[in-house]
What does this fold into?
Amino acid sequence: MIAPDPKLLCKQAESYYYDFLHKETIQLIPEPIVSHINHCATCKEQVNQLRAVLIKSEEHLESDQKEVSSAVTELLKLHFAYIGKPVTCDIVKPFLLGLLDTALEIRIPTPITIHLDNCRQCSEDLETIRRLNLSHRQLYRLSQLFADETSKDKVNCLQARAAILSVVFMRLHETNADVLRHLCICPGCQKALYDYRESVRSDLLLNRSDQKEFPCEQVSATDIFDYVVPYGLNPAKDQYAKFRGSLTSHLVTCPTCLAKMQQLHNTVYGIVEQTESGVVTLYHIDESAKAKAVCETEELYAGFPIRAEVMEQKDEVKDEQPAPAFNIASALKGKVSTINRKLTVKTIATVAAVILIGFALLLNITSAKAVTIDQICKAIEKVKNVHITKFVPDKTEPAQEQWVSRALNIYMTKTAEQCVFWDIANGVTKIKHLDTGAVETTRLSAENITGIEKKMSGSLGLIPFYDIFDIPADAEWGHANKASLEVDETIEAYDLMWIDRKYINLVVFKRWRVFVDPKTNLPQRTEFYQKLATDSEYSLKSAKMIEYLSDSEMQEVIEEVSF
It folds into this structure.
């Protein structure tokens, strides 16, 4: 009788190490393999090494950064599910939007990214979407659209087409989420919607009337996206609808802006309906590839234990066979983990978690128990009334005071010379000259209303960027040194630091410091600093004090101004 080769058994056992560590899956392992692992010193050592890494990964995921880590883990898990499997354009399409999200940035080669490296069509689609400068929420909804299963449609074409008129005239509150979804996933209804909007635009061109002054050139893809791609919207819960009234009333009567909407329609749904390019990629785990790449620095994936294969779709494609075994400890310390060739769902999650440990810095994941900028922005979005006082160096009096009431739909500013009150609901602005007490009342222009509505629905100017996703990818976020600051113990201080290259020879280093109440994640004070490359220290440029008011307190402020 020929005894089994121990080395061969080790290779076979390697793909069961993860399942061996869990009671619910160990019973699925063939008995000869379980017996071998229990008696093989080499396998026992590697199982212990894996156990130690998993414990560390679980500790990492249990931190206060679990929300961010989980998102990246899920993304990596989905990417690495395609190890050894053919990746086509249709598979990559739903991943495009996640690759544009700076909070989920991936800087290691995955089965999805190597397809983008080798498929011109997919890389061009990625750049097309990037140029739209969509918000995080819009990118998320678009990725959901790309991955949607049309077989689960709850609405028929007849029901959806009855709502086309409401959608074209941007009265989304007359529809519902299911109808909007159907209009986005049904090619026939997409075309009907496009044709109806085009007929409206043509009528406006034939019967063009004088338009009120409106900055059409400033209308961006972000502004019109929700009305072109209403996928994922629930009109019944749109808290910002009242802030877009002036924009939509202009859009439905402007052939120029409707043309922009038609162009965006063609761009987005062109990608949705686009056929395969014919490029198929395979991502193989191969430790020898890592060793080879060390010597060949020109290789795109130098230093990674992977091998990429590119072929045409007509070629025969087979799933990868188990690769030769290699030392698990070194693989886990490397850039890609290869614990299991067949990759069960749990194993894929483990691979993603392990990668997170090694790449936490690259992914800009903040330290445990830290408040993130995203949490601050989400808290600001829920604010109803706020009073912001801005100071500049060498001045004891405020440079400007600002009151914003989303509850009352008003916006007010005050300087040493005047107080300006924007009444959005009534479409007027009042200017009170503080030296004389005289009040001027004028009608708000469409441009004024659009600008004010944008300020009221954004971050209120409390962060140095209009949108969190405008923050440079290489910006640094972390705790400020409280030892040198006069700040209450209950308040936490953070610094956001980045480099602004204004011109070729002018580099400005910037720092935004925010003092946050960790119970509410709301900023209490902010400070903005900057320095040139020739400066040794940062200089303070401005500071803001923030006070959150009730509706009654806000009303009292307005009455005191006596407009």
